[in-house]
Amino acid sequence: MMKPGDEALMRPANPIDGGVRIGHVHLKVANLDRALGFYCGVLGFALTQRYGDRAAFVAAGGYHHHIGLNTWESLNGAPPARGSTGLFHLAVLYPTRAALADALRRLISAGIPLDGASNHGVSEALYLRDPDQNGVELYWDRPEAAWPRTADGHLNMVTEPLDLRDLLQA
Questions:
Q1: Does the N terminus or the C terminus of the chain have fewer Cβ atoms within 10 A?
Q2: Which residues span the domain enclosing 60?
Q3: pTM score of the predicted model
Q4: Backbone torsions φ then ψ of 138, nearest 5 degrees
């Protein structure tokens, strides 16, 4: 729901370049090998570089890195307490619904539980936690022409349950 004043935020006087993208995320982890087991072993990212036992970079499709993992400030550490600020989740965008279905099959095979699964109208998303309790969203975007809109043309995203059985058929 929009609040008074949001209209100005939707059309800033000096907008950022429309080609800007989030390039990568760098996570503090307690155990590097355990984190690599999840991001490479379960999700299927490839290890692109390792810095000894303290840091590593993983990617998809030959990119230099999408996710950095390090123990520089967090070796054997505990996750942040609930109620504290920080990263809510990182989001991994899959190119197709079938690729997201493959990710779900990988999670099921590895016994990784989901925190949730949502149909947002613009996308379908799986929510889970990595071994360090970092939030992870795995999702695919519907084509923009299929995004739900209000009568005046604004996005009308929703949060509805995602049919996982239907997703697995993709």
A1: N
A2: 25-75
A3: 0.91
A4: -110, 125
